Amino acid sequence: MEAIWRGSKSFGPSAQIFAGVLANHYEPPDGFNFDIDSTNPPVQDDPELFDYNLEERVDLFVQRALEQAKEFRTNHLMWTMGDDFAYEYANTWFKQLDKLVHYVNKDGRVNTFYSTPSFYVDMKAASNETWPLKLNDYFPYASSANGYWTGYFTSRPALKGYVRKLSAYLQVARQLEFFVGRKVRGPNTDSLEEALAVLQHHDGVSGTEQQHVADDYAKRLYISSIESEDLVNLALQHIASGRFSMNHTPHLEMVTSQVSSQSKATLRAGLNFQQCPSSNISYCPQSEADLSGKTLAVIAYNPLGWERKEIVRITVSDYKVDVFDSSGNLIPSQIIPVSQASRKLREQHLKSIRKPAVSDESIFELLFECSTPPLGYSTYYVKPSQNDSYSSEYTLIQENNENHDVYLQSNSAQYILSSSSRLLDRVKLKDGVEVSLRQSYCWYNGSDGNTEETRGQASGAYVFRPNSSSCFPLTDNIKLSSVKGSLVEEVHQQLSSWLSQVLRTYKGSDHAEVEFTVGPIPIDDNLGKEIVTKFSSDLESHKTFYTDSNGRDFIKRVRDYRSDWELEVHEEVAGNYYPLNSGIYLSDNSIDFSILVDRSMGGSSVTDGELELMLHRRLLYDDGKGVAEALNETTCMGDDFSTCEGLVVRGTFLLDVHSTNESSFSRRNLIQRKLFPLQLVFSVSNDEDGWLSVSEYSAMKTGYQLPPNVALITLQEQHDSNLLLRLGHLFENDEDETWSSVAIVDLQDIFAYRKIKHVEELSLTANQRKCEMKAKHWQIENDDVQPGSYIRSVGFVGDGYQIELRPMEIRTFSVFLE
């Protein structure tokens, strides 16, 4: 039941851990639950009482230990005493455990004592036992032949998306908190960090909690995000004012005293920074404000360590606008009317939260290209045109009723929609190679578990259990309209009254973006539904596809196959589903097709050449794994919130088709951009106050950016004023001919305005010095890896603060600045 686990092929034995599966879930052996409401008999050691059972209890204890010992190497066993909802009163537990420790040791057949996981592993390591080797990971889990725990990869997709969005926002807030100095009494990032941390519970972001608990999680996230929003606004105000010292960072409450009276007036009157957390429903009161005699400043903050150039889109209330960069140059822009699907979402949600809004008829999306420095921001200014001659390219959404193919052009590929299916059909690459890529939508019918064929296992929050392998199509009578412009080309597709998507390509980008809107999923037929989109290609994948492991390694998956044992297939679909945190791809060693996601979800390749994503789930039965509630999410609206309908989920994913030798770099770069999008902040002010003193800013040395194979993972000021810094190599060994190489980073170049005084390298979790860590040595069965074949980076290169990063390495530092 225990093995040495090497989860990364890039690290090999340098990152292996001792892993195991407990004998009884994580509960005690049968008969030894002593919580306050347990029916297991306590140890009665008074022979004068009728229920005296000491010998019986000791014998059963020894029997359970000997039974378990058959499944474990060495004579050490670990019993975890407790369980879900079964550790509510410590006194009843310890009263019985104290007795068992005393009497079992007195019996002498088994030695028992209170211990810790650390001591347990120490004893295993000291045994000189030889251990089996486990590679890759343990997905997918199953608790029975028909009980694959692959549904939670998608369960509560809106909550998963909210967690991903605020995780990126926490990165932004931490960085800005460091730039301007941390305030202990707030606003600071503590509350958002804590709220997101709580969501990492295995029944949190997984979506396997009851509805009222999910509501509470979302409420905590929202409340904490408000404080971080205040921090971001205040920090950017002070940087944009240009009046605080960047050479020595003061705390926020001290910055204001250093600003001149004129700049203070500007802060009060002109720099009222606000953000738009509801932009996913095309609602942003700041950018939609009447700009008569005013200027809208749009700050685009870039949390990545690289320069980036992207198209941004905001809602505005007038199409007669001009956009200027920070140097006052008029730049190209494009105006698109807000789509019908977005208008519907906007109207419904604004009514539910009783927010006033500009008339839907006068709402547009403004797009322009934004260039931002690494770890910094650029500012763009939107002003009403002075006359009827405006610079924004106004593009209408045109209905496509004609029977011909529709083309979308990206920088390196052409995406072609079929005249018959009205969905994506093929992709033509810049070298002329054409790849068949047919999109479809369908739904699996979630099992109710009530028939002999379903063997009692329903589909629910944890378990994905379709009634059959059939996925019922959702692609009849698609209504199609399109937008053609110089910055973006879009096709809007209405597949049903509750399902729509937008397929778009941006100027200068190699990929395509899909924005999906799913819900409310209908259940008036009493059938639970799991909504899937599929992409069928002509790539010869030979049952093989790749999914990411926590956004780092991509792990090879083979359909209906497990490398550790011979799999007996009972669930053709659910048994081949895997978690996608960043993405999934196919390869035929010539062309790679990747899908990169904006939140965790489930996906698979159930058929050769095909990828599928599960986007949303609405089910009517509990799966019996602990939630005790069906996964049936609803949104309630109206004056008394009594009108409820199924939850609507909106999200995006990217499609990337490249030659195999170019695909890794494109995929890794897009993952980072998807994970940490530009953060937009707005300020509306009178024309004379509208231009910021500091319209561009970067914390890095002028002209410097991180190497393309290195990501900034953490930049956070600690409570004792030192800085926590994590840098990660983005590529695996042999993943890319160019970028799977050792990267060099000079830490001082990251801090343009501060000088490094001292640096200590820490463990990944930043709770011990790297030099104090001691790896355990394990003897492993059939291990053909030669000692020293996997080298890890240590220390610095030369006399300064240059460091090396090898493939997939994350290095963590405590940095002390002058």
TrEMBL record:
It comes from Ceratopteris richardii (Triangle waterfern). It is an enzyme of class 3 (hydrolase). One of its GO terms (molecular function) is metal ion binding. InterPro entries: Gal_mutarotase_sf_dom, GH38_C, Glyco_hydro/deAcase_b/a-brl, Glyco_hydro_38_C, Glyco_hydro_38_cen, Glyco_hydro_38_cen_sf, Glyco_hydro_38_N, Glyco_hydro_38_N_sf. Its cofactor is Zn(2+). It catalyses: Hydrolysis of terminal, non-reducing alpha-D-mannose residues in alpha-D-mannosides. Belongs to the glycosyl hydrolase 38 family. Residues 147-221 form the Glycoside hydrolase family 38 central domain. Its EC number is 3.2.1.-. The keyword Zinc-finger does not apply. This is Alpha-mannosidase. Binds 1 zinc ion per subunit. The keyword ATP-binding does not apply. SMART domains: Alpha-mann_mid (SM00872). It comes from the Eukaryota. Keywords: Disulfide bond, Glycoprotein, Glycosidase, Hydrolase, Metal-binding, Signal, Zinc.
